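For reproducibility, we list the full input for the alpha-L-arabinofuranose complex.
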Amino acid sequence: MFRKKSYGIAVIGILLVLVLMLMMFGSRLFTDIDETTQVEKENQIVVGVSQLGSESGFRTANTESVQNAFTQENGYFLIYNNARQRQENQLKAIRSFISQRVDYIIFSPVVETGWETVLQEAKEAGIPVILMDRSVDVEDESLYVTCVGSDFVEEGEKAGHWLEQELRKRGRTQEPVNIVVLTGTEGSSSQLGRTVGFDLVANKHENWNILEQKCAEFTSTRGKEVMRGFLSRYPDIDVVVSQNDDMTFGAIEAIKESGQTVGVNGDIMIISFDAVAGALEMVADGTINVDIECNPNQGEYLLQVIDMLEAGEPVEKQYYVKEDVFTMENVTREILEERSY
Ligand code: AHR
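The corresponding predicted structure, in tokenized form, follows.
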């Protein structure tokens, strides 16, 4: 009995010593990690990125491009946040970047309005803000340093000009042409710009009837639903303008299910935007007539802008990424194989 008791006390003693050692060594270990992270952070440029969501193939590629650019090897410490399509989440993320005193804030605004207050807060904290992909509608443009993205009005005009040429080729310059438009997130730069651009061309043609424009939120599911609605209301649709490829995929499904055909040899012409790999394949096989590229590879551009700012060089207020227009005629096998998104 006595022997057992002393054995038990010895075990408890050893355990206590082990716990004490672990506490001392462990806390030292954690301190070291914290300090290392801190030192790493101090030697790197800290960038807070608020991405608006993950609604489309474009968006996934855009996120990857940013994550591949702002790496530790390139000298950056990236704090990334996905706002899941909600402006309030973006506001929260930006405020958290400000309180963490990041070196730069990059964000892709879900809509154009409602940013003044938070941008003012960033300005007062001395943190430069760079807009990515989409822009903001603010009176005081000094609230952000620059914007790297697409010329959405030009993209819309490209779509209109393609249709002009196509109708000329088909000899359809006089007879009515019925058009429906699937629009993206209401109030976003891409929706606003593409609508304005396409309308600029459409307004020059009295025979172009825009039957309806309806928001399908840049997603495939909504694209299909909204297209079904169009098909039930309008029996004679000639052209679908779909403001991104994801909505186009859904719309094409709905059209096919209705018994109609699409594309180069079909009943309904398809004009799409983005030119992601899956859609380019459909351009190549004639399912989509034309795809207006929206280039998501903006990470490299953003790196260059920050390099310039770090070097104290002046930057322009707007940088447009390079974008193309794809039809069956110019989508080569090489382009299809090289497409990474
Ligand atoms: O702002 C760019 C648009 O946003 C893309 O065309 C669309 O796919 C995305 O969701």
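Residues 55-56, 58-59, 133-134, 184, 190, 218, 244, 273-274, 294 surround alpha-L-arabinofuranose (CB under 6 Å). The chain has a mean pLDDT of 92. Both points were considered when choosing residues for closer inspection.
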